[in-house]
Each structure stands twice: as structure tokens, then as C-alpha cells.
Design goal:
With 88 residues, the protein is an alpha+beta fold.
Length: 88
């Protein structure tokens, strides 16, 4: 079984073209510790009509539980997922 962290990467690589791409390097969009968040959960990806890819996730400050400080964060790519703007 593939680690959960890899699912978002594969979804991102396939959502624009609609076909599976060969993965040569991994680029984790949401990593524990980024911007002081303990973990990220419930990722979602959407491609706009102009081809911009938006990746959302729930960012959890102190732990991965549901009863804590939770923010919605987004990362944006305008080049089919080759590069990403910082977490916001």
C-alpha cells in the first residue's frame, strides 16, 4: 500500500493532464512542521479554467486531533505543478 503522503502528489500530477505521470522526484506540498503546523489533513485539489492548480488542506497547530486550532491553507501552482507558491 502506498503511503498517504504520496496520494496527494499523484493526484496533483494527474489532475491537469488526466493521465498518470511517471514520478521521478517527490514534492510534498504539506509537511509537518511547515509554518509551525503539527500536521495537515484532508487535502483537496482543484484546477481552474485557466490551468492554475490549487491544493488545500486543513492545517492543525498543536496535534492532528479534531478538537484543536485548525486553519485552512492553500498552495498554488501556475505551471502544472512544477513549482508551488509558499503556503498561505
Amino acid at each position: 500500500m502506498m503511503p498517504r503522503k504520496s496520494y496527494l502528489l499523484i493526484i496533483l500530477m494527474t489532475c491537469y493532464s488526466g493521465t498518470y505521470a511517471q514520478v521521478s522526484t517527490l514534492n510534498y506540498l504539506f509537511k509537518p512542521g511547515d509554518k509551525g503546523y503539527a500536521c495537515f489533513r484532508i487535502p483537496a485539489v482543484i484546477t481552474t479554467s485557466k490551468g492554475t492548480i490549487l491544493a488545500f488542506a486543513e492545517a492543525r497547530k498543536n496535534n492532528c486531533g479534531d478538537a484543536d486550532d485548525i486553519d485552512l491553507v492553500v498552495r498554488r501552482s501556475e505551471d502544472r505543478g512544477q513549482s508551488w507558491l509558499p503556503l498561505s
